């Protein structure tokens, strides 16, 4: 998910980076007219997002397995070894990535 560059950042901290053999991300604290945010970018893929404290709380509350599920969805596998329909939007696939539970 990416957001437009015109996001109203009025001040920012220094970048820090975290990476491994698969990817690298950059993070920094920014200030907008709506408050503080964490800016996360994945330069290699062009992804960028700003998250506020409430959104970060939701991320922190997730169990690690949830991220494995998200990785599988991003790679086109639904977690049960079956490929997702690449033509379906996330909304069409539903909250479970097209799976019913």
Write structural notes for this entry:
Residues 84-93 have a biased composition (Acidic residues). Residues 77-101 are annotated as: Disordered. With 101 residues, the protein is α+β, with helices and mostly antiparallel strands. It folds into 2 domains: 1-61, no CATH class; 62-101, no CATH class. It contains 3 helices and 5 strands; from the N terminus they run E-E-E-E-E-H-H-H. Strands 1, 2, 3, 4 and 5 form a 5-stranded antiparallel beta sheet that branches. A hairpin with a 4-residue loop joins strand 4 and strand 5 (47-51). The chain starts with 10 loop residues before the first strand and ends in an 8-residue tail after the last helix. The model has no long low-confidence stretch (mean pLDDT 81).
Helix content: 10-25%
Main sheet characteristics:
5 strands, antiparallel
End-to-end span in angstroms?
A: 26 Å
State which percent range the strand residues make up.
Answer: 25-35%
Q: From the structure provided, what is the oligomeric state, counting identical versus distinct chains?
A: single chain
Q: Low-confidence parts lasting 5 or more residues at pLDDT below 50? A: none
> How many domains in all?
2
Number of β-strand runs: 5
Q: Helix count, per DSSP?
A: 3
Report mean pLDDT, rounded to a whole number.
Answer: 81
Features:
globular, single chain, alpha+beta, 2 domains, 101 residues, five-stranded antiparallel sheet
Write the layout of secondary structure elements.
Layout: E1 11-12, E2 16-19, E3 24-32, E4 35-42, E5 47-51, H1 53-60, H2 64-74, H3 90-93
Antiparallel strand pairs: 1-3, 2-3, 3-4, 4-5
């Amino acid at each position: 998910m990416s957001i437009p560059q015109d996001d109203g950042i009025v001040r920012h901290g220094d970048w820090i980076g975290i990476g491994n053999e698969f990817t690298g991300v950059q993070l920094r604290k920014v200030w907008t007219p709506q408050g503080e945010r964490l800016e996360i970018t994945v330069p290699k893929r062009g992804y960028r997002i700003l998250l506020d404290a409430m959104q970060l709380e939701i991320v922190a509350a997730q169990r690690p397995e949830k991220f494995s599920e998200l990785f599988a969805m991003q790679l086109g596998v639904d977690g049960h070894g079956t490929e997702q329909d690449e033509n379906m939007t996330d909304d069409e696939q539903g909250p479970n990535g097209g799976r019913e539970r």
